[in-house]
Amino acid sequence: MGGKKIEQVKGDIEITGVDFAYPSRPNTNVMTDFSLDIKSGQQIALVGPSGSGKSTIVGLLEKFYTPNKGTIKIDGVDVAELDPMWLHRNCLGIVSQEPVLFAGTIKYNIAYALLGPNDSVESGKVVTMEQVENAAKRANAHSFIMDLPEKYDTILGEKGVSLSGGQKQRIAIARALLQDPKILLLDEATSALDTESERLVQAALDELMKGRTTICIAHRLTTVINSDVICVLVKGVMKEKGTHSELIKIPQGIYRNLAEKQMIFTEEKVEDVEDVMDVLVDDENIVEVENDEE
């Protein structure tokens, strides 16, 4: 593949004038003239209805797609020029709603981010068992792993089917902690968890986010409130941007209405920000773009 590598990543991200449409619908823009500057160490939350472009921003940063117009840069270097293998192994850490786990041992799944095709944890050359266990402890995963019959040698089924959702998330977080990326991408990382699992996973995420540039696709206000910047997107356009305290002060603001609606809907157990945003978009007569590739 090849491409550039950044010797010492700081984690500054600059998105400038990005337009993007999926190849399957070239005439329907998902992003329109989107710009966002993220400074090293900032925590950014992306909030919006389905089809608003939240996951598209992450996909563009991961180099899965190329903008039709505009640029995305990390530390001043265009992502299009970066070596994709280096980008994913040395720069970006990802924790998604359904983490990618393999049908190997738990220790392999945690160490995977650092292992090459011919490496193993047993060799201790690339990563040691002590490092794996330390990462698991920081991710609140060590205790449940030690309760398993084979502990770190437990073989996971395909996609980690033998673990609960919260356990899979904590394995993925342990992997990201071991990887130690400068930029962290959280894609609905706690949206499918029960309350107790969410508490444990959120505590592990808080540990993981320390000192890193973080972009979080947020579905619950509890994961948004403490962000440095909250970006409210509708149909690929930035409608509002600011802190939680700033946005709730905007009269008739989208985010303020979102917060109010979520509180109103509490009795009906609607806790998902995206669900509420969909209602808000409908309330405001904004026709939402059908987009299963968000």
UniProtKB/TrEMBL annotation:
Chain segments annotated as coiled-coil in the UniProt record: none
Among SMART domains, the record links this protein to: AAA
> What keywords tag this UniProt record?
ATP-binding, Membrane, Nucleotide-binding, Transmembrane, Transmembrane helix, Transport
Highest taxon of the source?
Eukaryota
Q: Which Gene3D superfamilies match?
A: P-loop containing nucleotide triphosphate hydrolases
Q: Which family does it belong to?
A: Belongs to the ABC transporter superfamily. ABCB family. Multidrug resistance exporter (TC 3.A.1.201) subfamily.
State the name under which the record lists this protein. Answer: Abc transporter B family protein
Classification from the root reads:
Eukaryota, Discoba, Heterolobosea, Tetramitia, Eutetramitia
